[in-house]
Amino acid sequence: xxxxxxxxxxxxxHILNPVSGMNYKYFLHAHSHIMLLGWVFNAxxxxxxxxxxxxxxxxxxxYQILFWFFQLTxxxxxxxxxxxxxALWSILFSTLHILLSFYFVYLxxxxxxxLKATYIYSTKFLxxxxxxxxxxxxxxxxxxxxxSQGFSNSHWYDLSIYYYLHFQYxxxxxFAFLGMWxxxxxxxxxxxxxxxxxxxxxxxxxxxxxxxxxxxLWIHPPFWVYVIGYAAAVTQVAALIFLYLLLSxxxxxxxxxxxxxxxxxxxLALLAFTMKILLQALSAIPEIADLAYQVRNFxxxxxxLVFLGFITLxxxxxxxQMGLLSMQSFISKTGLVLFVTGIIGSELYLVLxxxxxxxxxxxxxxxxxxxxxxxxxxxxxxxxSLMRK
Length: 389
Fold this sequence. Notes:
Helix 2 (24-52) packs parallel to helix 13 (296-321) and helix 5 (120-136) runs antiparallel to helix 7. The model is unreliable at 385-389 (pLDDT under 50). It is built from 15 helices and no strands. Among the domains are: 1-114, no CATH class; 295-389. By secondary structure, the protein is an all-alpha fold. The longest helix is centred in the middle third of the chain and has 33 residues, at 155-187. Helices cover 79% and strands 0% of the residues.
């Protein structure tokens, strides 16, 4: 995560003071791939494997080998994307990562079958997260075909990227998070309201695939695509309502089991998740969908809200709760505060100027807040203890 943040800081610095020989687009590809695969995927891999094998006191060697193969592909992308962008070697490493993820899905699916009787809802969410991970892989494969056929400047190029991102953060990542947090509740043998949990699960699952229509409204598709998008948006908001109903019923139990810093991260991440759902619902309005596509700051702000406010804070909260990340020192606590401050400041700097029609030192502000996030993450990572207890 620190490396991804450093690349983001470098990109902001390059805008203000161009670095000789640096290709902005190539480094942007490196930043996005390292953020998604080097940080989020690795964190989910480590968290899920640790969680599922916690009671066995050891992680099977096969998972350990697979993890290091993933690191080789990420390292390959870190080296090749800044040098050549989308080219033979970078595409090869990213394709190998996808193929390895297929095997990861196979291994994890077998493990989840053995636990589904005890961990009912956590395994349901986790199984679907793996389904969406497989579905997301169609995006990069389609992208390769689109580029080879000379359609790099067409809507299909953008749609294939949106397809991949949609099934990554709305499917694989979101459902994995939900499975991991349901696992905490079920592992403590806390009683879940079955009706509320069931409605939340099915509304979330049923809305995920059709919600991709919301990512295509900017091309002004046929009317039936709008209908699907509207229905998905309403369904997602309904799912959000059931989530809050479920949390209200678990309020006392969650307060008793969550550590203070974990709870702070989770509450902020839940706020970001709520904003994500509501913004997706608003994107069903054609004018807002057009605005989100036309104003680049809005797209970047949304992605940062998802990856930093929702995903990263949820992951940090989960690792803190599991005791895999330490928040004991002044440096780590200050780091987390700086990181959150950087997220909030960056979001405001991205969104407010276009809304207010203001101009000025926006890039200087974004560089400052990027620096805050990088400094904060270094502080949070300084006492890292990602190891089996």
